[in-house]
Amino acid sequence: MAESTKQQVMEIRAALSHALGTAENALESARHEEGVAAARWERVNAAAESRRRKLAAARDERLRSIQEWHDTELAALAGAAAGAADRAAPGAAGEPWPSWEATPLPKAAELRIGRLLLPAPPGRPAPPGDQPGRPWQWDEQSPPPDPETPEVPALVQLLDHGHVVVHGDRALGDDVVAGLLLRALGTSTPGTVQVIGHDPEHLGGGLAGFAPLAPVRVLTLVAPNGLGALLDDLVAHVRRINETVLAGEYSSLRELHAATNRRPEPWRVAVLLGAGELNRHERTQLDRLLRTGAACGVHLIVHGPAVDPAPGIEVVTAAPGDGARIGSAGDLPVRLDPGPPQQTLTATCRQIAEAVAAGPAPVALDSLLPRPDEEWRESSATGLTAPLGDSPRGTRVKVTLSDYPPHALIAGPSGTGKTNFIYAWLGSLAARYSPAELAFYLLDFKEGVSFARFAPGRRDQSWLPHVRLVGVNVNTDREFGLALLRFLGGELRRRADAAKQHEVTNLAELRAEDPGGHWPRIVAVVDEFQVLLAGRDAVTTEAVDLLEDLARRGRSQGIHLVLASQDVSGIEALWGRPALVAQFSLRIALPRARRVLAEQNTAAESLPRYHAVVNSDSGATEANQIVRVPSAGDREQWSSFQHRLWRRLPKDSLPPRLFDGDARPRLADSPDFRALTPDDSSAPVALLGETIDVMSRSARTVLRRAPGRNLAVLGTRVEEACAVLATAGLSLAAQFARDGARFSIACFDPDARAAAEALHARIPDCGWYDSSNVDWLLEDAAAESTAAWPADRPHFILLYAADALPGGRTAGDQLRTVLRQGPERRLHVLGWWRGAGLLRDTLGGQGSRTDPIGAWVALDVHGSELAPYYPGAGAPNWYPRPWRALHFDRSVHRGAEVIIPYGAS
Ligand SMILES: Nc1ncnc2c1ncn2[C@@H]1O[C@H](COP(=O)(O)OP(=O)(O)OP(=O)(O)O)[C@@H](O)[C@H]1O
């Protein structure tokens, strides 16, 4: 081989070997890179996997939390819906049948017909009762409702809202109608829902369960051909209610009720069953009612005749299982309740029928009251006007006291609601007129305390702000009636004088002329006033004279009298004075009241319970207004009303004067006693008891330095005699500084000893004497009485049972000396004799002068026995009665006055 060839081979070989090396290197590096790439791929792959897992976990977590939120939200919404439904349909409106009972509600509620089937959260099975296809029923086997999914009732609005139209399954629809009707009846006061049924196919069979309501006319079934007449009748009601009841003031009965608490018209629910075709007239009337009835309380439940959906009409599609729907719940399935159990239906209808047969249910007092923010807005300048209730036609009956009619006469046999009528009237007035516009003086001659609620009592410290005087249990204290009339006579004079001064003739003008003056109208109510006029005596004569004057002149001075009696026909004192009776032109007759209206006016004879005839024209038939009187007897309702008004009074307002004939007044409460100060008066006053008058004045006798200024208490009643002496002693002691006067007590009756000792203990430095040492006192007092030197201070000698004074003639002479001569030397005897004759013995027997006794208080001593101590003709008119006394002071009285001893204080 040539060298060059070899050379070439070697070069090639070298080149090949180089190329191989390079290729190997490249392979190596490629393999390396492959390894690196594979490793990276693996890393990326692993990372991607882990990220996917994380994402999946995050997604699951998110999904779970969304689900949880959804579940909670759903449960909360279902709970809220159930709560709202409970509020919208409380008690008998929403209670399921097994536990259902009638519960009248204060206002119309929505009514349950079944329940809404809300979607169950996934993962929680629907309660077995909701499984499609399984008939739902209220029975013992029904599974208990799931506590976590509150049941949401399906409610429809009927009373005060609209109408219900039922389509679909006939039998289930009948159940819906029966359930709705029973719930409507059971949620309202018996008699306030009236059902009128038209059932031409089954002739009323569709409403057979409600039959017990027919005799009391809560259910009326109209004849098969009576649909037109029924619809006409309802349309007429709507027109009348719009015209006279709503009268342009309210847009619906619901609004009227909300504003005034009155419901003057019943709800009328017409149930139209059967598939018959309506004629044109019927269709027109039906459409009218569907449009306008609900505002006037006329509601339709239609199950048969076709009705187009419209606002205010709830459409119920009756179907089994979860196929039922109600228009207001959209697509939500509804499970309808079964019809009401027969037993519940019958029992409820019987109850309602009984309640209706027993008479109309009372109307609440609230219906007479304005809204609290409208209270005390009226001016009484020209009169006092207040509603008393509704007439049977639904209009409000208002009553006015003014110049005409100025005064009222109310009559009603016992138990017919006379007292309730007065309460309602006073409440209606008190809510409208402030105490600056109106003042009440109330006197009740009936036994009992019917007006006591207006004054502060032990349990309730509030009072009706307008009341200035309340007299209760005054049936034996006719003098109190006289005192009221005298007081009003005084007020009349005051007003007449002011009118004269301002040159005006009536209250309205006086108020205009004297805007700063306090001139409220006064309403004085005297219940059972015949008691005041019962006797043929001085009290009756004066009372009738005062009444006549007040009735005649009070009208223009804003003083109004309201006299009430069980039977005005028996009040001879009134009927003998036609001019007096004529002033009482406002007449109010409760059921079966006689004589209070004009003779031919017999309206009161046929009045239903809780109604009254109000007549502003002296009882003339044409002026009759029948009113259904609300019940004002509920103490709680009254009390919350009274408290509301009372809280508006300024803090320092004075309560009314309460005169309770059964209570013993306390000396400590006497304003006259409280006003006494130790001023060592030269004309000391002995208080004796409380007078029977409008102010709680104390009866008094002034023991000035003058002959006859002694006091005798006469009678055998120890407790009362001791009470009078204690009052006298304590009141005298209150007028002197410690040494300003001398007091001596002598007691000769063991029964009086405790009381005498008690008084002794309360008068500082008081001398104590009894049979053993009274001779000292008498000797000393007789000497004092005849002494020549002037007395430096008064000496009061209180003798308990002076007729039992020991010491024979000497002591008798000494006591006579003291009685005759002592007062001029400031020595006064306040003695208790246990009989008028015994005092006469002390004074020297028959024929002796009685003028040493200038003042006396008689207890159980008859008027005739008092004649010797009573100057002028005859004896005082006095028949003793418990815890009352007759007081006479010859230095100030023309006649004797009745007083009430103060009880223990
Ligand atoms: N309008 C009414 N609504 C509801 N209840 C009433 C109404 N009027 C009276 N009543 C009730 O009837 C009963 C008798 O009423 P009230 O005491 O007013 O009669 P009265 O005529 O004053 O009887 P008396 O003279 O015997 O006291 C009371 O229980 C009262 O609550």
From TrEMBL:
Gene3D superfamilies: P-loop containing nucleotide triphosphate hydrolases (3.40.50.300). PANTHER family: DNA TRANSLOCASE FTSK (PTHR22683:SF41), SPORULATION PROTEIN RELATED (PTHR22683). ATP binds at residues 412-419. It comes from Actinoplanes teichomyceticus. The keyword Ribonucleoprotein does not apply. This is FtsK/SpoIIIE family protein. Residues 119-130 have a biased composition (Pro residues). Residues 394-599 form the FtsK domain. It comes from the Bacteria. Residues 117-152 are annotated as: Disordered. GO terms for molecular function: ATP binding; DNA binding. Keywords: ATP-binding, Nucleotide-binding. CDD domains: TrwB_TraG_TraD_VirD4 (cd01127). SUPFAM superfamilies: P-loop containing nucleoside triphosphate hydrolases.
